[in-house]
Amino acid sequence: MKKLLCMVLVLMMVFSAGAAMAESESDWAYIQGKGKLTIGITLFAPINYYDENNELIGFDTELAKAVCEKLGVEVEFIEINWDSKEIELNSKNIDAIWNGMCITEERKQNMSMSRPYLYNTQAMVMKADKEADIMADIAGKYVVAEQGSTGEGKLQGTIADDDTVVVSAKEYFKDANYTPVDSMAKALMEVKSGIADVALVDSVCALAMVGEGTDYDDLTVNLDNNFGLQEYGIGFRVGSDVTELVNNAIIELTKDGTVAQIAEKYGLTDMLVPVDAE
C-alpha cells in the first residue's frame, strides 16, 4: 500500500513538473525556432480568399503578413475546418486563428485573444425576390450558418445576447429549420441554389461577397434585425506570449497608417476598431 502511494505521489510530482514546464515555455520561442507563424483560416472575402490569379489575398491575409514582417518571422496559411479550430491550435498544427473570428466569452476561456481590430454583426442573406416574404414570416423557412460560427452561436443561444442586441437571433429563428454547413461561402451557395432560404453570416463577409458584380448578384443582404455588435480578434494558445507581441505590432501598424491602407483596399475603413477602444 505504501509503495502504491509513493508511486502515485511520484507520478503526481512528475505531472505537476511537466505542467509547470509547459506553462513556462515560450510560445514565441517555439515560433521563432521554426521561423514561421502558422495561421489557420477558412476562405471568405474580404478576409482570406483567392483572387483570379490564385493568390491568397484579403484584409487578414495582408495584416498578418505585415505583422509577421515586423516580428521577423515568415507566415504560413493553412485551411482548417472551422469547427475544429481549437483542436488545431492546441495540437500545434497552427499557431493562430486569424480569420475574421468574433471574440466571445467562451473563446476567451479557450484561447488567448488579441485586441479587437474589426467590428462585425450578423447579416441575413436571401434571394432578393424572396426578401419581402422571408422578412414577413421566418417560420418554417430553411436557415444555414457556418458550423462553429458566431452566427450559429447566436441562432442556437450558445453565445449570450448582450446590451448591443436589439433582436435575439435565438428567439427570431426559433420556428425556422436550421442546418449547419462547413463554411460561410457554402452557406451563401446553399441560398443561391435554393436549398436554403436564409444564410446567417458575418456582415463583413456578406457585404463583400453579395450584390451587383459578384457571384451572388441575385442575393441581397438584410441588416434590419440587429442581432448584436461583435468584434474580430486573433486566437492564440492559452497563455501564449505571442498575443502581446502581435497586439503591439498591430498598434504600431495602425499608427504608421498601414492598417488604414489595407482596410481602404478592402472597403473596411468604417469597421476598424480604434486602438484606444478596448
Strand content: 15-25%
Helix content estimate: 25-40%
Distance between the termini: 56 Å
Give me the Rg, rounded: 21 Å
The tally of beta strands, per DSSP, is 12
What structural category characterises the helix and strand content?
alpha/beta
Tell me what the structure shows:
Mean pLDDT is 91; it is low at 1-23. The protein contains twelve helices and twelve strands. Helix content is 40%, strand content 22%. With 278 residues, the protein is of the alpha/beta class. It is globular, with a radius of gyration of 21 Å.
Q: Helices and strands in order, then pairings?
A:
Elements (H helix, E strand, L loop, with lengths): L1 H23 L2 H8 L1 E6 L7 E2 L5 E2 L1 H13 L2 E6 L5 H6 L5 E7 L2 H6 L1 E2 L4 E10 L3 H6 L5 E5 L3 H7 L12 H4 L4 E5 L2 H9 L5 E5 H7 L9 E4 L6 E8 L5 H14 L2 H8 L13
Parallel strand pairs: 1-4, 1-5, 8-9, 8-10
Antiparallel strand pairs: 2-3, 5-12, 6-12, 7-10, 7-11, 7-12
Helix pairs in contact: 3-11, 3-12
Attribute tags:
278 residues, alpha/beta, ten-stranded mixed β-sheet, 12 strands, 22% strand, globular
Question: What is this structure, in a nutshell?
Answer:
The protein is α/β, with parallel strands linked by helices and 278 residues long. It has helices spanning 2-24, 27-34, 59-71, 85-90, 105-110, 131-136, 150-156, 169-172, 184-192, 203-209, 242-255, 258-265; strands at 36-41, 49-50, 56-57, 74-79, 96-102, 112-113, 118-127, 142-146, 177-181, 198-202, 219-222, 229-236.
